[in-house]
Design brief:
Distance between the termini: 30 Å
Number of strands: 0
Helix content: 55-70%
Order of helices and strands: HHHHH
Number of helices: 5
Strand content: under 5%
Length: about 120
């Protein structure tokens, strides 16, 4: 679905770099890059039955977004739209192997939607 392009780092490596950043800087589109990594990571984790591990990565994104907002660096309109699209897309993926109809998946996606709408 969200495959690698030529010369692109694996999603785990790119995600590790983004996690090390002190804040998700809006000037560098870090939220959008983070969402792209999560989409690509879903192709690796979810079909293998690692939905819980992927949801933990999404929760880490929510934590980083909370830190950023508490630092008074608000989400840009583009970031809000990207977060809403991401959460809505994955929330509606209820067919196997993505099975986002599970309660824990719905809770994480609803939390992300609520956060993006503030």
């Amino acid at each position: 679905m969200f495959g690698l392009e030529f010369g692109q780092a694996p999603p785990q490596v790119e995600l590790a770099r983004l996690k090390q950043a002190p804040a998700l800087n809006p000037n560098y589109n870090m939220v959008i890059k983070y969402l792209d990594c999560l989409n690509r990571l879903a192709d690796h984790y979810i079909p293998l039955g690692n939905l819980a591990a992927w949801l933990i990565e999404v929760q880490l994104l929510i934590q980083k977004l909370q830190k950023r907002v508490y630092s008074r660096i608000h989400l840009t309109p583009v970031e809000r739209k990207s977060l809403l699209n991401f959460a809505t897309y994955w929330r509606n993926m209820t067919r196997p192997p993505y099975n986002m109809g599970r309660p824990e998946a719905q809770i994480v996606m609803i939390t992300l939607i609520e956060f993006a709408q503030r």
